[in-house]
Amino acid sequence: MHRNPMKVARGGVVTGWGTALPDKIVTNEDLSVSMDTSDAWIRERTGIRQRHLGGTTSGLAIEAGRVALDRAGRRPDEIDAVILATTTPDQIVPGTSAAVQDGLGIPAGAFDVNAACSGFVYALTVAHGMLAIGAERLLVIGSETLSRITDWDDRSVAVLVGDGAGAVVLEAVDGPGQLLSWKLGADGSMGHLLQCDHGGYLSMDGKEIFRKAVRVVVESSAQAIAEAGLTVDDIDLMIPHQANLRIIQAAGQRLGIPEEKSVVVIDRYGNTSSASIPLAMADALETGRLRPGNHVLLTGFGGGMTWASAVLHWGG
Ligand code: UT7
């Protein structure tokens, strides 16, 4: 299943982006006061130094969305739909995207996408489909408050998570636009590896997810690169889901993408699930690492298990 850019009459380009992070920063040292862990263990095993904690999924999404709209120079009434990727909705019903629609005053449809940490790439893919059938402008957001479903006495999960949001405005253009290829995958038989019941806490089989994550990231990235008509050497920047620095390094090595081409923000933000790719993308834009003309690989994996890779030609 893939998209042939030559057959697409209308594609999309990102015209604005924004982020939101709670004010409260919690360092590894802070965590080692309340649980049996250490800064050295967390840094060596995950690459994380600190994380932002707090807020609500809708509140962070509204903040990031507002910045993205401003940067795109767009009014709320110019947006045709809000697509919110989240695995930590504020409530089961209503969808959190409706609160974002209301908070931003966007007179349009709104829906949530839950594909865990792959959610933003799923949402971006769905958004391109909507542009192809006539939408003009969409607000696509990844927002999470994983801290709310974390058992703060369980060091195996608590040291990993962070809260935050990243948003983009995606606008229709004639012709293929930025998205050259996409690859979505899911395997529900692996659901038990990372789960959270209603009212419960996140639990995971970290070692098994690690092994599977590297495999699906490498496979789906290689497929997306090939379907974009590119080779791995054409990729200027890899923006991976930020779950563990060692996963990012292992996947990059196996794909043959040098480390300096990976965007890493896990040291500052921890694992923010579906917010991690838009947060990393915003970082690459703000530091001038992501420039017009670049070929960018987005690749994520997470609960489900799900995975998603896409290749963008930045600036269309
Ligand atoms: O967003 C997508 C979903 N999540 C992931 O992708 C997570 C993928 N997995 C991982 O990132 C890693 O497996 C972890 C970071 C979760 C764990 O790293 P690991 O290298 O697989 O460690 P481990 O679970 O094998 O544990 C090694 C040791 C154990 O002690 P013993 O048995 O060797 O004495 C653990 O009890 O480290 C111990 N340990 C800790 N020590 C200090 C586990 N968690 C901690 C901790 N602080 N927080």
Fold and architecture overview:
The chain contains 10 helices and 13 strands. The chain is an alpha/beta fold. It folds into 2 domains: 5-174, Thiolase/Chalcone synthase (Peroxisomal Thiolase, Chain A, domain 1, 3-Layer(aba) Sandwich); 179-313, Thiolase/Chalcone synthase (Peroxisomal Thiolase, Chain A, domain 1), CATH 3.40.47.10. The strands form 4 sheets. The protein has a 5-stranded mixed β-sheet with strand order 1-7-6-4-5, with helices on both faces. Strands 8-13-12-11 form a 4-stranded mixed β-sheet, sandwiched between helices. Strands 2-3 form a two-stranded antiparallel sheet. Helix 3 (57-72) crosses helix 4 and helix 7 (206-227) runs parallel beside helix 8 (245-255). The longest helix has 22 residues, at 206-227. The structure holds oxa(dethia)-CoA. Oxa(dethia)-CoA (UT7) binds at residues 37, 41, 45-46, 117, 155-156, 159, 194, 204, 206-207, 209-210, 213, 243-244, 271, 302.
Total DSSP helices: 10
- Give the cofactors and ligands: oxa(dethia)-CoA
Major sheet: order of its strands?
1-7-6-4-5
- Total tally of structural domains: 2
CATH class of the largest domain: Alpha Beta
CATH topology of the largest domain: Peroxisomal Thiolase, Chain A, domain 1
Content of β-strand:
25-35%
Helix/strand class: alpha/beta
CATH 4th-level superfamily of the largest domain: Thiolase/Chalcone synthase
CATH architecture classification name of the largest domain: 3-Layer(aba) Sandwich
Shape: globular
**Assembly of the depicted chains:** single chain
Rg: 18 Å
Number of strands: 13
Helical content stands at 25-40%
